[in-house]
Structures
1.
Amino acid sequence: MKHLTDEQLAGWLAGWLAGEEEQQTRSHLDSCPQCNTEALELRDGISRYAVAMRRQSSLAENAHMNGKLAPRRALALHRLRWAGAGALALLLVAQTAWLVKPRHAPATALPTASSLVSPQNEAQPATQLSDDELLEAVNNDLNREVPLALAPVSAITVARNNIAAASSRAGTTGEFSGK
Amino acid sequence: MSDVGWSAAEFDEIMREHQARIYRVLWCELRDDEAAATLTQDCFLKAYRGRADFRGEASVGTWLVRIAVNLARDYHRNRRLGFWRRLLSGNVREAERAVQMAVDGTPRADRALLAREQLQLTMEAVKTLSPQQQTAFRLRYLEELSVEEIATAMRLEVGTVKSHLSRAVSALRQQRNQP
């Protein structure tokens, strides 16, 4: 028996199949236990991946986005910061000029505005999370709670596929061809 | 929707509605809590400044995802941060050992074991994909964008998106069939 191609399986998982191709893929999944098992396992794995990433991302967001400014305020602060930087630079230029002038010293390179006020440009990579660390965090989650049904790959796709599988097992023909 | 209809207050509302998704997209791309938070702000700032460019061909959400994907790509291109990432990659081995110890040392319920294996398999498979394939995969299964929306967000042809998703399935199958 010729098994499903990557494209067919991807189309089934992502939900882009239509018409005859969709019918063929579905009827093959109904009649081929090997492809059926593989498809369901891949779908479950993707679902778990999506749930894990969402959960970890949500935790990180809660920890790091609280107190962040709305765009308008951020924009205003951004402008204020640059205005302050400009004023500070001017002040330093004036002060340096005042200090340098009486001694007839040669002009030295003055600090630029950006060099004075750009601590935010420093690289700060300290919290980058590797796959393994992520997996460990997810493992901890899984150990605390093992939900029977993790969130589906796509509610519509999964519901449709589940219904199709159930009806197939019950001996009915595929009446769920519509999207 | 055009910028004519967007007051600053309305834009704040848009930000509240889409912040979690944008943070998630960036966090998944960068795996860096702080950088994701900063770029989330940058994303909305950029969108706010460039709101006149929004023509309404795509949804606001897809438009914001496109900006976020571009910001993540630019971030990755930054050589200085690339240096820090490489420097920090030495920690991966330690994390691997920690995960292995956790796996070996603690009994698991069968269901949790299966869940973890499926998750690990998916994560390993995703790691083998190109950055662009990973992005397409996550936009489909985490953000549940359609292939057409992914094509818009990533400025790709629909066929290319399907090809990326098929490649992901191929990688998943390879991982699953490994002894």
2.
Amino acid sequence: MSDERFEPKIVAFLCNWCSYRAADLAGTARMKYQPNIRTIRVMCSGRVDPTFILKAFSLGADGVMIAGCHPGECHYLVQNYKAMRRYEMLRHTLLAMGVEDHRLRLQWASAAEGNALAAAINQMIDQVRALGPLDWPRFWHENAGHQEAIARLPHEHAEALEVSA
Amino acid sequence: MTEKVGVYICHCGSNIAGKVDVEGLAKWAGEELEGVVISRDYKFMCSSLGQELIEEDIKKEGLTRVVVGACSPHLHEKTFRRACSNAGMNPYLCQMASLREQVSWVTEDKAAADVKARALIAGAVRRVQLHESLEPTEVPVNPATLVVGAGITGIQAALEIAEAGHKVFLVEREPSIGGHMAQFDKTFPTLDCSACILTPKMSDVGQHENITLLSYAEVEEVKGFVGSFNVRVRKKARYVVEEDCTGCGICIEKCPKKVVDEVFEVGMGKRKAIYRPFPQAVPKYPVLDTANCTYFLKGTCKACEKFCPTNAIDFEQQDTYLDLDVGNIILATGFDTFDARRIPQYGYGRLPNVFTSLEFERLCNAAGPTDGKIVLRDGVTEPKSIALVHCVGSRDEHYNPYCSAVCCMAALKFGHLVMEKTAAEVTSFYIDLRTPAKGYEEFYDRLLEEGMKFVRGKVGEVSDAARLPGEEGKLIVQVEDTLLGKQRRIPFDMVVLMTALEPRFDAKEVGLRFGISCSMQGWFTERHPKLDPVATMTDGIFICGVCQGPKDIPASVAQGAAAAARVQGMISRGTVLIEPIVATIHAEHCSGCRICNNLCPYNAIEFKLEEGVSFINQALCKGCGTCVAACPAQAITGAHFNNQQIVAELEGLLYDAARGTQGAPKPVAVPA
């Protein structure tokens, strides 16, 4: 196993109107892309709750893609802008947590852009493969004592604030 | 979980079975996935036998949930929902996994395809168990229809619906209906006179008892949903009272101010400050152009008012707003032509005898500025040689990558008209000649026989810099003749640029207003490029003609009629089912923070002040789920896409990654 190439698992949230149809088109046109991506259809990229992304990582995903209609082309007029805002905030949060930039990707793909979506999927898989496994579930396991650690926090905080006479 | 799930894996002939081990997948799902009581594979699930298989299992085995691993849900979700419904199960308790478009067709490696297929099935099985029964709402369809744009396409659509006995509101931005077709001289390949076939239809529209024509008007706002849209139309001030005007035209005759007509005559001819774009205009009422009217500029004149026999001129007139209730909307907003100035090396706007194709149409037109005489810009000299330059702004990565579909045939038509009306030689510079419809290739053959010349090559430059004898005073076309394999310089008296068709300058804005999407270029997007060409993703809004993509008159008319047929279908059914995929706020969890209030582009969320909670008007909700994702208290649920369902699908998709996580499905060995 160890000398085998690492195969990342990536979850993609595709909006029903543009990017899921782009994926359909990639299929109809028999464009081949790497199999490491698993898709969830949502009505709009605006439906993607940032906690879904954290949940995906905690369930063992090595990367998450959010794909929606191009700005200005959203089926729900402007909701992809909201996805964009959330993505930017979550990206910063994840970076601060040590999760590399390429593990979360926001991709615009119109219903006509099967090739663009396939290329983006391939690129993201290559990038995440180069980063290696994220393996959040393992870290949960290793940090089995995290509940106690959290319980200790306020105490440590109070101690740090105490000024010695 | 107590749900009994049936899993059905489709072979799709060899489309799925050729890549995915379908039997193995069905067996695995039956053995390894929690909740699955039956798991089968079948050659074609979408066939009637395949559907019966599901129906029988629901009835006999008491299935409560169904998962179909087949093609994209966009293709057959309806089919399988109907099958479930036939067997007495709520159709929303069925879930599809796209094994074809997302696995077998896009994956090279068979083993990898198996792994991915399992993940998708596992996701669907976990998700479907949390599905809830949903009922679509039935709403009535208002039989009145709004048609936007009254070119030939909109006219055809409006007439079809009106003839069927239903009310139509036809809105046109310009003072007259007719669109681009009214500007043309002849139509290819039959050479019918454009006005002769168009104007009878225009007057039918003007006189039809079921058509309310709103010319010189624009749609400002669209509210509501399929079956009952509320549309606000701004009728621009004409400064002519339509009820009093007889259309006698004395005001036009007496108006002392002449201005260049940039719209109908594309700058080739003049009109008065109070004008009708062309004599057969429908409606017949003139429009006063305040930017040029002497009274509006200087405060005196009023010649039109003085001479009007019915006192129909009203200088105080204001824009008026009309609120219309309609059940369906047809958009036929047409196209703009490419601005040839964007290609400076072709010299348009700098070299006087370089024309655009629309200008040339006006030159050929007997009702045009030269009474149909093909002459140079000086207005008198007949050209002895004319070059027709194809693909100006089309099939060019710098401008538009697409083919404009009509220019080749229009160039052939011009070739014929030139040879019919003048003694000039006419040469076409083409990349490829595209003549793909009834009678088109025959027309090309006819032009070859008539002596039109053809040079294959994209023109590099049109210049007036003479270098060789015989080039003085001429326009020199520089081209690589790709059949001879040679650079050539050919002098001409006149050059006509066959300009591309482009989306309307405001197409994206209009798309937003009506809630439909555009392609990158700005063409409106149809529901399905082949099987649903006039419907859009927004129910009740249809598109036809060139606003959907470049096409010629026969195709536009066919689409106009098709859109009308779709609308008539909606009207005769009388009611329409609205998807129950909407969001709901659970008041008991709502803290009244109002974060969701500003997120909804449809204003479906209102804040109830007395109760201190937000509320969603489900008739306005389109089900995007943005508010669901934003609610910090999780007080909003999105039907069919709730948090639990999505998280369950995630858990299933990552079935082989989620080891050791609480609540995850038991790990399964990945096949080697």
